[in-house]
Write a structure and sequence with these properties.
This protein is an alpha/beta fold. It folds into 2 domains: 132 residues; 241 residues, Rossmann fold. The chain has 17 helices and 9 strands. The protein has a 9-stranded mixed β-sheet, with helices on both faces. It is elongated, with a radius of gyration of 26 Å.
């Protein structure tokens, strides 16, 4: 493993920066620690260097350790093999966490349990190191042309949100944005994102819909009803005519994938295969992100969703639950998000809360609230009408 890690950091600065945060050199042999130190100094001296010039490294070793030069030269020769840095880093994370977990288990068995909090913090820092390494969209802007920048962020390049009252309150979304929809059970989260999905499709966008909450065929039938603006009973009367109609409305641009529960790695594979403009994840809380506490899982899921948006330059819409505090409440706030009223909201550009009380349910109304809105800054709220038969959400003028 030591040789593979040294080989990787010679070839990739990014891998070195990730491994530096994981303090992997602590377990290296003395020769390994020496080489790691040289690599670290090399990258620190030249911030633009993306890999190591081995000839310069050898020259440095020959000058500093002439009697051991042959030994280190042979070691460097043995590091010329290739390896998958992504898989290697994942293996390092697993081994690092397993090691900390063993120490934590032993410490918990001691009478004083001294050092437990420190070990827990170290365990969490392993995931933090990996997340930090991917939290960069690669953009470097110096003297950027103002006209081109304004053109890129102008309304014509934004993604329209539905219904129209949501679009008016936000001004639309941009690729790279991370959106969260939340509500109590049976309020209409699925209905709302199905309405969004249909709007995206009608706008000519390709949508990847990740479903790990409801049966895939049920969700697909609801999307069909929304595109056709017909009930399932009406669709069943003449499915061929309906299919012909919804194909004109973007139906062929829909990719629906059922997962149970699914991982962000699987989603990235689907994005690589299908190149969507938008990904909708129902629900974020069900995605497998590790064995952390529920609070940590929610924050990690939100962060990974944001990374998907930035890395792939797509719009991400995630769904989660509101806690008990959101019951019979019209205007939802960030602290109503179940298990994560800080970590998850911090990763979002727009948070859409769906509220309902008995009066609104009787009217087939829902209250949309925007407790976080980086798109326009308007933290407003407004009612909408929902049609459960067609999954249509319309504004109240």
């Amino acid at each position: 493993m030591e040789k593979k890690l040294l080989s990787t950091i010679l070839k990739e600065r990014k891998s070195f920066e990730t491994l530096e945060r994981l303090s992997v050199a602590d377990s290296f042999s003395d020769p390994g620690k020496y080489l790691y130190g040289l690599v670290k100094e090399f990258y620190e001296r030249d911030s633009k260097a993306m890999s190591i010039d081995v000839d310069i490294l050898e020259s440095r070793i020959e000058r500093e350790l002439p009697k051991q030069f042959t030994l280190y030269k042979n070691i460097l020769l043995s590091l010329q093999g290739t390896s998958s840095s992504t898989n290697l880093l994942e293996e390092v994370v697993i081994l690092k966490k397993e090691s900390i977990a063993r120490d934590l288990s032993s410490t918990l068995l001691t009478p004083t349990r001294s050092g437990v909090l420190e070990l827990m913090e170290r365990y969490k820092s392993v995931d933090d190191a990996i997340r930090e390494s991917s939290d960069n969209d690669g953009s470097l802007m110096i003297s950027t042309n103002v006209g081109e920048l304004i053109e890129d962020i102008s309304s014509k390049n934004k993604i329209e949100l539905f219904p129209s009252s949501l679009q008016e309150a936000t001004g639309g979304a941009m690729r790279g944005n991370n959106i969260l929809v939340f509500a109590r059970p049976e309020v209409g989260k699925s209905l709302f994102i199905i309405n969004l999905c249909a709007g995206f499709l009608k706008s000519g966008l390709k949508v990847l819909f990740i479903e790990n909450e409801d049966p895939a065929k049920s969700t697909m039938s609801r999307i069909i009803c929304r595109l056709a603006e017909k009930s399932i009973y009406e669709v069943s009367k003449n499915p061929n005519v309906t299919e012909s109609h919804i194909k004109k409305l973007g139906y062929d641009n829909l990719i629906l994938k059922s997962m149970s529960p699914g991982t962000f790695r699987e989603m990235q594979g689907l994005i690589d295969d299908h190149h969507p403009d938008v990904i909708i994840i129902n629900q974020l809380r069900n995605i497998w992100v590790g064995k952390e506490s529920r609070v940590e899982q929610m924050e990690i899921a939100a962060t990974q969703a944001r990374n998907l948006a930035k890395k792939n330059d797509i719009l991400v819409v995630g769904v989660t639950q509101a806690g008990d505090s959101g019951t019979n409440k019209l205007r939802l706030e960030m602290n109503d998000i179940d298990f994560s009223n800080t970590g998850m909201p911090a990763q979002m550009d727009l948070i859409i809360g769906l509220g309902m009380n008995q009066e609104f349910e009787n009217k087939s109304w829902r209250m949309i609230s925007l407790p976080k809105n980086k798109l326009s800054g308007q933290h407003t709220f407004f009612p909408v009408i929902v049609d459960t038969k067609t999954n249509l959400v319309t504004s109240i003028l």
